[in-house]
Design brief:
With about 240 residues, this protein is an alpha/beta fold. It has two domains: about 40 residues; about 180 residues, Rossmann fold, CATH 3.40.50.300. The chain is about 35% helix and about 15% strand. The protein has a seven-stranded mixed sheet with strand order 3-2-4-5-1-6-7. Helix 1 packs across helix 2, helix 2 packs across helix 3 and helix 7 runs parallel beside helix 8. The longest helix has 15 residues. The two termini are about 25 Å apart.
Length: about 240
Amino acid sequence: MKLSAPLYVLKRRAKELSRKAKLPLHTALDRVATQEGFRSWSLLMARAATRLGPAELLARLEPGDLLLLGARPFEGKTTMSLRLAAEAMKAGRKAVFFTLEYPERDVLNRLRAIGEDPSRFSALFDFDCSDAISAATIMKRLDTAQRGTIAVIDYLQLLDQRRDNPSLMEQVRALRAFARERGVTIAFISQIDRSYDPAEKPCPDLQDVRLPNPLDLSLFDKTCFLHGGEVRFGVVR
């Protein structure tokens, strides 16, 4: 079923209805969903178009959320994360990109490749390309970040590659607590295991996340998986 407007517009409509009619937000969301032909907002979200754009993804994230953004190589996970950051900055929010994969010039070139001029966001965009990135350095860098800041970590499986860093589980737990306290949204780019077979399902899911070291995936709030141009958003229960 085709929606009458993008998800972020429908969500904005529900917030306005909640304020004007003095309704709980979940009730307003359900009313908007009913107008779109769904029994509830959760059903609308589950059946929404799979080609989710960065603006719609941003609209589904709340301050304090941990997002896991996963895909096999060359499926667009880094591009999606930069588009997400760009959407946040267009809305006046700060974005910080932590990468253990790319040098500074590559990060800036990737922004240009998606049609964004880094100089436009000079006051809102920050990045860290050092080899010492860990939960501790990320929290230190974000210590003065305002509520609503978007942080991208590239990528999850490299956080504990240095032997002197805490375990991956410990680092993600620390970042979860920090995000909740400060209202910062953190998106973790994630590898997908090579055993993932697109012939069995069109997009990977949490079961396909590559985990060389133990990690409780329920620490994440939202997921976004990509494959073959398809995007699947989910809420971790």
